[in-house]
Task: structure prediction
Amino acid sequence: MSPYISQAVLLVDGYNIIGLWPRLREKRDRDELETARRELIEALVNYSAVQDFEARLVFDAQYRNTPSVKEIITKNLSVHYTDFGQTADTYIEKSCANLRYELRSVKGKSRMIVATSDRAQQLTVVGYGAEWMSAQQLAADVEFTARRSERQHKSRKHNSSRFLANSLDPESQQRLARMRMGLH
Result:
């Protein structure tokens, strides 16, 4: 059995996205940066699962003297905090350089997508063969995906009955009915 392979690798410049999504920027300014980070992570959990992307959310620790850390959030999302002095841009560029060769050897996973609105970063990653997605495009895509998932969930919930027995297959329903009547 082969390991699970997602459709694409999505690299997200976390602070760039937070600074450009109005809702996240407001959370960052009103509450604190951690609140905005957590909300972005939650948005990407759903988005990466529905889109079947291996999403890597990158935050730089450029001004904090901390080692790099990788948090596995779900099978589709990991959060990467860079080493002291390393920017998210350089982390993403190095990842693109490494992934360019890695993805060619894996059948079915040949896409790299970088989400950032940093123009210099856009030009660099496109040079590595990555697709570019602006912060605004990612926000719109995340919102569309969330609404579509919510509609699908509501329609499934609306169609299902409140009784557990109705979720059983017909044969099991008949057996259950016979048991209730005392028939074997």
